[in-house]
Amino acid sequence: MRVELADVISSENKEMSKQAEIELLSFDSKLGQFPVVKKEPFVLTFTNEENRRLSIQGETEVTIAIPCGRCLEEVEQVFRLTIEKEISLEGGSEETAMDGFSFMAGTSLDVDQLIFGEILVSWPMKVLCREDCKGICKRCGANLNLTECQCQKTELDPRMAAIQDIFNKFKEV
Fold first, then answer.
1. Which of 53, 110, 120, 45 is nearest to 83 (CA)?
2. How many Å apart are CA 36 and CA 21, to the nearest integer?
């Protein structure tokens, strides 16, 4: 969704509120593509502060399905976003002063780009379905939270593989 801000930018000390809808269907980044499960409409408030700054404020919640870092089960992660941005209006023209922001194109604000940047900054380092998640078996891929696999549990030191081969060759039957 795009919001046109020409009226606010051109009028000193003008304030405008606008209800915004998030149109993102998925969060696409270098980490992968994650579906947006739930998104709340929210009110953005724009304030021209003495023709020096444009203040953007708002709050919303976005829920994204992210795979667990251990077992790969989908986990709904809620992002509570508080948007507080200030853009300088001083300089040659409004357009050149706002070019450094990816969510602004001239006097038009792209709400989805603004939300994308806020989610990216808030992205968790690791997501777990639960604190004691057992993960998946390295050999058969079974989800260890749901079932016990019959794979060999002991892991040998790879540096000792040559000695293990010797033991296997001379094993008594």
1. 45
2. 13
Closest by CA to 47, choosing from 57, 37, 58, is 57
d(CA 38, CA 57): 21
Token match 């021209």: residue? Answer: 48
What is the CA angle 34-100-110, rounded to 5?
45
E strand intervals along the chain? 2-4, 15-20, 26-29, 32-39, 42-49, 53-67, 74-88, 104-105, 108-110
- Enter the tokens of residue 81: 């976003």
Domain ranges, ordered by start, for the chain:
2-122, 136-173
| Residues 6+ positions from 138 with CB-CB distance below 8 Å | none
Q: Are 75 and 67 a contacting pair, CB within 8 Å? A: yes
pLDDT tens digit sequence for 92-121: 444 434 445 678 877 888 889 999 999 999
- Per-residue pLDDT reduced to its tens digit, 55-100: 999 999 999 999 999 999 999 999 999 999 888 877 644 443 444 5
